[in-house]
């Protein structure tokens, strides 16, 4: 509802796109300690964003977060998370991903990767509609949260497949026809000439 609150994530994404564009087609040499340091820093930042507020994020004994840490966390958590993900993309793109690159680039992820944006678009409306359809008190606990999450993802996945087939597929087909990109299209056969002696 407030897109300006996520502007720092967008800016990190723009910076990451520029970074990947500048290294495209170039061989980037890093020393082993630099790559390991990048992975360790990325993991530390991601874990700090995920678990840094664990003491304040409990249902049993809620504790109010002081104002200064709350402002710092709200201001930097999204950008820090995005920066950690930028390292993963950058390392995998430049050949320093190792087994993580092998895992993430496995072909079995391709169908799901095509549906992620459609699931992003469909799951939120389902989550908004659901509370308006129940007429009993809803108690929040871990089991209910897990069941709701699985249900939202399942129904959102079905809606995402339908949305992708009805909208994204035809538009990608039109894009392939209308916008010619290098490397696409029919290759002309190579002609060979023979000399007579």
Describe this structure in words.
The structure is a single chain. The protein has 2 domains: 1-105, no CATH class; 106-180, no CATH class. It is 66% helix and 0% strand. The protein is globular, with a radius of gyration of 23 Å. The chain is mainly α. Helix 2 (32-51) runs antiparallel to helix 3 (67-93). It starts with 6 loop residues before the first helix and ends in a 19-residue tail after the last helix. This is O-acyltransferase like protein-like. InterPro entries: O2_lipid_transport_reg (IPR052728). It comes from Homarus americanus.
Tally of individual helices: 6
In angstroms, what is the radius of gyration? 23 Å
The percentage helix is 55-70%
Order of helices and strands: HHHHHH
The tally of structural domains comes to: 2
Cα separation of the termini? 78 Å
Morphology = globular
The main sheet comes to: none
Poorly predicted parts: none
């Amino acid at each position: 509802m407030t897109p300006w609150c996520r502007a720092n994530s967008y800016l990190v994404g723009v910076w990451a796109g520029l970074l990947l564009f500048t290294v495209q087609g170039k061989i980037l040499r890093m020393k082993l300690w630099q790559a390991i340091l990048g992975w360790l820093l990325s993991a530390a930042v991601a874990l700090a964003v995920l678990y840094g507020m664990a003491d304040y994020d409990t249902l049993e004994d809620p504790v109010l977060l002081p104002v200064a840490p709350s402002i710092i966390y709200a201001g930097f958590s999204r950008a820090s998370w995005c920066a950690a993900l930028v390292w993963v993309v950058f390392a995998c793109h430049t050949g320093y991903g190792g087994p993580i690159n092998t895992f993430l680039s496995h072909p079995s992820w391709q169908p799901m990767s095509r549906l992620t944006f459609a699931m992003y678009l469909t799951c939120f409306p389902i989550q908004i509609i659901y509370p308006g359809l129940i007429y009993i008190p809803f108690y929040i606990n871990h089991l209910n949260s897990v069941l709701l999450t699985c249900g939202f993802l399942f129904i959102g996945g079905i809606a995402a497949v339908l949305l992708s087939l009805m909208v994204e597929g035809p538009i990608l087909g039109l894009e392939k026809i209308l916008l010619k990109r290098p490397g696409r299209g029919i290759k002309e056969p190579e002609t060979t000439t023979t000399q007579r002696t």
